[in-house]
Amino acid sequence: MNRIYADFNATTPLSTVAQSWMARAFEFWGNPSSSHAHGRQANEIIEESRDLIARSLGVSSFEVVFTSGGSEANTLALLGSFFLKKPQMRLLTTTVEHSSIRDTAGFLQDQGVPVDYLQVKRSGLFDLEVFERQLNEFRPTLVSVMAANNETGVLFPLKEMFGICQQRGIILHTDAVQVFGKVSPEEWNFCDLISITAHKISGPKGAGALIVRRGTPLVATHYGGAQEIKRRGGTENVVGILGFGGAASDLPTPEEINNVRILRDTFEKTLLETLSGVSLNGADVTRISNTSSIRFEGISSEVLLGALDLDSISVSAGSACSSGSISPSHVLLAMGLNKQEAKESLRFSWGKTTTREDVDTVLRAVIKHVTRIRDRKRKV
Predict the structure, then answer these.
(1) pTM here?
(2) Is residue 158 helix, strand or coil?
(3) Are residues 313 and 336 in the same domain?
(4) Which residues are catalytic?
(5) Do 321 and 225 have their domain in common?
(6) Neighbours of 142 (CB within 10 A)
(7) Distances (CA, A) of 234 to 1, 52, 227, 237
(8) Is 8 inside a domain boundary?
């Protein structure tokens, strides 16, 4: 049986366009920093990819700093700000960020940096008035807030946040990994620092970027060369960067994004109407088009995930970066779920290759297993 993939927020299948661009990189194997012809050829294809990525985002090519992925881009944004202004740095972030932000924030706290956290409501959002009050009281130099949550898909109000930060001269960083290719860049490309990655848009793993908008101060955290205009040292991952550029040239169209939304909505509606004890995490706020975080009351997510896996269906119990953990999701706990409720939730995330047949098959399997598991528990 062919496996059905419903975990696009963890990673996406490598597209044929990205593969073809990566194949080009093997033809130009010179070191991009070398001044001879082989080096110049490699450098030219890197810059071609940089231009494509910049155009897809609506930013300048100069502002694209290549990294090894979204986690490194997040780390560079925070540590690059820290090393720039050690004594003065103050960081404000949220309780639902990706582990790369949470762990780096913890490191900064160990270095004596004051760090404060915005608490979210049951919806997964926070109040903008609370945000503004926290800015006034805590006085951060950097705010780091994800554009969309990787587990629930909840979108944050970046335009309003940016306006509030801009009035106070505060730098705003956003982890845009989950919105790139799903939400128009006009909704988030104005932030001062922006993290993106290739493997969430059908590109390869191991390639990402931090967008450093013109005039935003930042210092390098990787040394060893003058690459990326001395903003990230080290010989470039030419194959990965080419795949990133190819993927950026083949982003989902608005029609494809809407088709995924229709499939997602159909999936949620059918489950909620067919099964009792089912609830949607982040139900009452705007979410990205492909994501459903669903709680199945009384059923361990590990049990249901395992049953679906045996049926050749791939889903997730949360973030891929923490999926090996038996701990409940920090995102769902921050939203007010207790430990048991958080451990009863699965994430379904779809992509442009998802078909209606895929969704229908997953629906039948989920309904079958939830009914079977509950019947068995009642008989015990």
Answers:
(1) 0.95
(2) helix
(3) yes
(4) 321
(5) no
(6) 26
(7) 43, 22, 6, 9
(8) no
> Which tokens in the block code for residue 42?
């490699």
Structure tokens belonging to residue 117 = 């956290």
The distance of Cα 258 from the centroid of its chain, to the nearest Å, equals 19
What the block records as the tokens of 190 is: 């104005």
Distance of alpha carbon 140 from alpha carbon 164, whole angstroms: 12
Q: Which domain holds residue 348?
A: 252-379
> What does DSSP say about strands 278-280 and 171-175: parallel, antiparallel, or unpaired?
unpaired
In a domain, 347, yes or no: yes
- The tens place of each residue's pLDDT in the chain, 380 residues long, gives 589 999 999 999 999 999 999 999 999 999 998 999 999 999 999 999 999 999 999 999 999 999 999 999 999 999 999 998 778 999 999 999 999 999 999 999 999 999 999 999 999 999 999 999 999 999 999 999 999 999 999 999 999 999 999 999 999 999 999 999 999 999 999 999 999 999 999 999 999 999 999 999 999 998 988 888 888 999 899 999 999 999 999 999 999 999 999 999 999 999 999 999 999 999 989 999 999 999 999 999 999 999 999 999 999 986 555 545 567 999 999 999 999 999 999 999 999 999 999 999 999 999 999 999 999 888 87
**Alpha carbon distance 189, 212 (integer Å):** 10
Evaluate whether 191 touches 162 at the Cβ level (below 8 Å): yes
Within 158-249, strands assigned E span 171-175, 193-197, 208-212
Could you tell me if 263 and 243 lie in one domain?
A: no
103 and 224 fall within a common domain: yes
